[in-house]
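W.,

You were right to be curious about this one. When I first looked at the sequence I had no strong expectations either way, so I just let the prediction run and decided to look at it fresh. Below is the sequence, 278 residues in total, followed by the output.
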Amino acid sequence: MDWPRIPLEDDPSDVLRKAARGAGLDAAALAHRTGLDARAVAAWQAGDGVPTEDQARALAVVLRLDPGKFADTVAQRWYPGAELPPDVRHHPHDPHPSNGYLFFLQDGKTAALVDPAGYPKTLLNAVNEGPYTLRYVLITHKHADHCDATADVARAFPGAQIVMHKADAHAIGGLAKHALPIEDGAELPFGDGAAIRMLHTPGHTDGSSCFLFRSTVFSGDTLFAGSVGGAYGDVSTYDDILASIRFKLFTLDDTTVVMPGHGPPTTIGQEKAHNPFF
């Protein structure tokens, strides 16, 4: 199924800000290290204009970005080519600007919901229109635009098992005590011969996690098409989010489809080839 062409989650200014924050460099420090004008660097970070090809490459070297890939990002020379897998359904998390997903077994009856957020009616309709038996509610991390409708979904589907990392589970209040804690690399049984692999990918938050089902990985705010999530962990860091992607997601097959928490889908192979953070 084709995915409508929507903007990437991060534009060049977002990539620049995230990399600069991760490197601990403000505009003045970046300007000093690259020989560029500090006012220009600050403007680019604010989304006012973009650097030239040579300027982008100079910034990338200091920020530990790939120079060629960052230059491509600045020039908007790449957009991911990926389709929605046939066993996945997407729904918006209005009023949030985030993605929600349902994926299901080939029997068309049993489903798992990724990130219960936004208007509860949208989520309940997505499950009931199947109609599906909801087996799991999988939560990638603690931010409201990914879990603020958990209580409503739990009331509507009391038989569904909530799955969330214990480091982030406080975000769903009293439901946390009923949540199955994520164990990195462990699998959740999901029908005959099917399973969902849990991957703990700290960095965006301490409990950030991804879920792999067959050849699709639901990456939350860990990995976006052409970018990564911001590092907002209490303990985990920017380096942790890069390591999570490099050693847990990039070890998946290149054809694995990535369904991110924001922006369009991509594949592991395309991210290896085009994501400027790697």
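Here's what jumped out at me. Residues 88-274 form a domain with the Metallo-beta-lactamase; Chain A fold (CATH 3.60.15.10). And, maybe more interesting for your project: The mean pLDDT is 96.

Coffee later to discuss?

I.
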